[in-house]
Amino acid sequence: MSAKTARTGAAAAAPGFPGDANLRRRHLQERGVGVVLIAFSSVSILTTLGIVAVLLFESIAFFQEVSPVEFLTSRRWTPLFVEKHFGILPLLTGSLLIAAGAALVALPLGLAAAIYLSEYALPRVRSVLKPVLEILAGVPTVVYGYFALTFVTPHVIRPLFPTADYYNALSAAVVMGIMIIPLVSSLSEDAMSAVPRALREGAYALGATRFEVATRTVVPAALSGIVASFILAVSRAIGETMIVTIAAGAAPNLTLNPIRGVQTMTAYIAQVSTGESPHGSLEYRTIFAVGLALFTITLLMNIISARVLRRYREVYE
Amino acid sequence: MSARSDETLATAPGAPHPAAQRDPSRFRPRLAARRRGGTIFHLVTLAATLVGVFVLALLLVDIIRDGAGLLSTDFLRNSPSRLASRSGLRPALWGTVWIMVITAVFAFPLGVGTAVWLQEYAPDNRFTRLVQTNISNLAGVPSIVYGILGLAVFVRAFALGRSVLAGALTLALLVLPVIIIAAQEALKAVPSSIRLGSYALGATRWETVRYHVFPLALPGILTGTILALSRAIGEAAPLLLIGALAFVDFVPRSPTDPFTVVPIQIFNWVSKPQPSFHQLAAAASIVLLVVLLGMNAAAILLRNRYSRKN
């Protein structure tokens, strides 16, 4: 409502009707509330700008002392030793090794669970199993870390692989895989449930069995949502900190052997921040350089996931 | 698929299926075999679903077996100590309470305000879409990156030090996107006839939101906020960067005091080599899971009560 109509309204008002002054007050209030709400909304923008600014600012200072070429190509990461090397490759392979292991656990299990919940489960079974699976995503990651270190490593990994290190990538990867199952299963199931009934009925009419309907009609039709959930789950695995810090160790080995200890990007950041690296020192700045790499990788994966979801979605009306 | 598949591939589009061209008696549906395969697949997907449930049960049993024996009022009342037998959770529990209250005080109004703006006020323009995209991207940023932001901005630039306030502000930014998205969903669920009715009676936009839309959306908003805070309660990584790992054997008295929280205390104990400290970590995990269970139950109750009313 513009100020002009407000004034006409007041002029037409009967005596005793809360007129002009009240309307003006309400308009001021309206404008004030709008300003406050925009200010609130800008906090989320400022958060992003803050993250980018902080990471870039300290990383630039870092790269003035360490060449980006060394950062990206050196095969050793020893910033806390006397003989310093700043190659992020061991941390990157550590993160990727564990994320790949977690994906090997979570993608098949999550997809199968999604197919079961969407295509096979009776509504009553589904209404119990789905929330129980989602509890897996709500368990604090330190508790998973405890489970990986004190149960999975001694009672599962070491009986199978007696030469496994006490801190090893496999244990962290398996437990993290369990943690991200609900991410895959929930998002994939949403995508499958959105496949219209007519497509299923059509396949049944052609003589397909339930298995064929699930795997050759529903899954292909929901593929964009499934792939998006896969990417999102792997991105979550790369960004997770506590399980890997507790169970995978703090040794930045450049290895693809899952029964050895590795250090991920996140575990390194946690390790340095719990030590006493003086503010402004090169060790302190490694937090931001590694953080920048971590942020870039996860952001790219999240953007790709959103793109896949939007770009390749079959739109059913 | 059998050998028939290459025949199928060789068929020109539009031509009748090879099975129909030839003697119909050669058509073999092999229904029994396909059904059997389907049953096996059914069982495999069921088994895959139960793997998650089984591991969850295993985890709970493991933690209860390791830690339940240590649970006592002394465990909740004592401070951490060099002796495992005298260690307790008191400073960490109070630290968690402090952090949660201050996080909620900042994150709730900011999150709900942003959601109201996006849902009720914002014009559909580039800025609005930027804010919206930005929020979904923020929801995917690893929590430790928020810790880096908190370290550089709240601990250093704002000179809050390694305090309760610095930790709570960091967690507030972490849960903000989650609260915004949940509040938006709750606001979206309010039918537009409510808004139109209010406008028709001459209410301003704010009066419509304040007296009609917001009260209807409130249960959904509260449910989402409780779930978001229950995520924050279990977070350790961002608070590690804020410096909550230091040995704290006292209860914080003001927002500027140093602090520790339950997940950090668990991390602290599990990092020690002695098994006696691992048991303390298990006991603290039980406490943390019970708190989380309580919060989730509250959220579910709220949601159920609300949906019965409608």
Provide structural commentary.
The complex is a heterodimer of chains A (317) and B (310). By secondary structure, chain A is mainly alpha-helical. In chain A, 75% of the residues lie in helices and 0% in strands. In chain A, helix 1 runs antiparallel to helix 2 and helix 12 packs antiparallel against helix 13. Chain A is globular. Chain B has 310 residues and is mainly α. In chain B, helix 5 runs parallel beside helix 8, helix 7 crosses helix 8 and helix 10 runs antiparallel to helix 13. The longest helix of chain B has 37 residues.
Secondary structure layout plus pairing:
The complex is a heterodimer of chains A (317) and B (310).
Chain A: H1 3-12, H2 20-65, H3 68-73, H4 89-120, H5 123-138, H6 141-160, H7 169-193, H8 197-205, H9 210-221, H10 223-239, H11 242-247, H12 265-274, H13 282-311
Helix pairs in contact in A: 1-2, 2-13, 4-7, 4-10, 5-7, 6-7, 7-10, 8-9, 10-13, 12-13
Chain B: H1 4-10, H2 18-21, H3 31-67, H4 73-77, H5 90-121, H6 126-138, H7 143-157, H8 164-188, H9 192-200, H10 205-233, H11 237-242, H12 262-270, H13 275-309
Helix pairs in contact in B: 3-13, 5-8, 5-10, 5-12, 7-8, 8-10, 9-10, 10-13, 12-13
How much β-strand is present in the residues of chain A? under 5%
What integer is the average pLDDT of chain A? 89
Helix content of chain B: over 70%
Given helix and strand content, the structural type of chain B is mainly alpha
- Write down the secondary-structure element order of chain A: HHHHHHHHHHHHH
Helix content of chain A: over 70%
Which blocks of ≥5 consecutive residues of chain A have pLDDT under 50? 1-16
Mean pLDDT reading of chain B: 88
Largest sheet of chain A, described in full? none
> What value does the Rg of chain B take, in angstroms?
28 Å
Radius of gyration of chain A (Å): 27 Å
Proportion of strand residues of chain B: under 5%
Q: Give the number of helices of chain A.
A: 13
The shape of chain B is: flat
Shape of chain A: globular
**Helix/strand/pairing category of chain A:** mainly alpha
